Description:
By secondary structure, the protein is mostly beta strands. The protein contains two helices and twelve strands. Strands 1-2-5-4-3-6 form a six-stranded antiparallel β-barrel. Strands 10-9-8-7-12-11 form a six-stranded mixed beta sheet, with no helix packed on it.
Amino acid sequence: MEENLLIVGKILRPHGNCGAVLVRVESDLPQRFDPGSRLLLEEEGAYRELVVEDKKVSGKNLILKFTGIFTRDDAEKLRGELVARPVNSRLPEGEFWVHELLGLHVVSTEGEELGIVRDVLFGPVQDLLEIEGERGVFIVPFVAEFVKDVDINKKEIVIKLIEGLVP
């Protein structure tokens, strides 16, 4: 996939006989799959645009029906394919793409090097940064109380340390 594309799901298998597919969602924005949404599928080095016609929730996955995919055989051809969207660089202030945060250096407000962002975990109340450094692996809530600055250009996140936050 190209750098300016963001993978938002993977087609797992056909669902039913009318061309629907079961999709594992790899996005925290469910509206990306609303009817009328345009998604991209890589096929033989080119990108095919798929338009979502219908969406149903199936546990942690979605059942999607795309315009122009009419039969189970049509849907079977999509098995295992990654679904992407163009990266929209115009996120609201203070919001970031996960791939922008991974690998950023984390320092304390006092300038102490704490490690790098290894993962972003999505929680029901707030997202969490998983940081790995010399002190081990630890989790920091991705909220303004702890995260004081995120500078994508400097590749740095500044966090306020409190007792018990870092091992």
